[in-house]
Design goal:
This protein is an alpha+beta fold. It folds into 2 domains: 21-124, D-Amino Acid Oxidase, Chain A, domain 2, CATH 3.30.9; 127-246, 3-Layer(bba) Sandwich (FAD/NAD(P)-binding domain), CATH 3.50.50. It is built from 9 helices and 9 strands.
Amino acid sequence: MTGSGSARKATHPGTGSADDAVYSGTSAFRGIVPAENLPSLPDPQAIQFWMGADAHLLHYAIGPGGEAVNFFAVVATPPIWLDEGSVAAVQEEVPPASFRGWHPAVTEMIKAAASPIRWGLFTVRPLLRWYRGLVVILGDAAHGMLPHHGQGANTTIEDAFALAVLLAEAKPDGLEPAFARFQQMRRARTRKIQRSSSVTSSLLHLPDGPAVRARDEKVTRVAEDFAWIHEYDVQQALRAAGAAPAGNAAQA
C-alpha cells in the first residue's frame, strides 16, 4: 500500500492521520485572468515575482498563446489556521485588501480574478520513517513543503519513479528492504528542499531595509544557487544507488 496526498490529508505509516501537518502562518489566493484585462501589467508573458512586506505574488502566462495570466498571491495571515480543511472561503474584499497600496498591476490582477477563496499553506514535519510493514508513503504525505520552489509535484514524480524502479527489482518477500532503499535515497533531498522552501518564504516577505537589498542581490544568482534542485536526475541517482531504471540497464 502506498500513501500520498496533500500535507493536510497525509497517510502516515501506523497512524493514518495528518498529525504531522504544520500550518506555516501563510496562506494564498489564486486566480486566472485574461491578459487583456490587465492593462497595468508591464509584461503579461513574463514569469514575475512581486515582493513586499508580509506578502508576495507570482504570475506567469498560460494557454497556447499566453492569453491568460495565472497568479499565486501569498500573505502572512491568518496567524492561526482554524478551518478543518486546507481551503477556506473569505469575503470578496479580503484578497484585494491584502494587497492594498501595491502596484496597480497586482491589485488589478487580484480584483479581476474575484476568487474569494484562501488556501492555507502547510508543511509536514520531517519524518524519520517513510514505511512500516507493507505501507510506504511518498510525495506530500512524506515531505509536504511550501510551494516557493515549485517542487511539490516534481518531487512526488521523482519519488514515484524511484519507488517503481526499486519495487520492480524487489522480490515478493523483499518489499521492506526496497522501501528502506527508497527512503534512504529520497529523504535527504526532499528535506533539503523543504527547508529551503521555508527559508525562501521568509525572504519573499521582507520589509524595506538592508535585508531586502541583500535578498535582491541573491535573486540575481537564482539559477546558480538552486542548480542543485533543477539539475537533479532521478535516473542518475538510481544508478548511483545500484538500481537500473528500465531501458538503462546498459548504463547502470
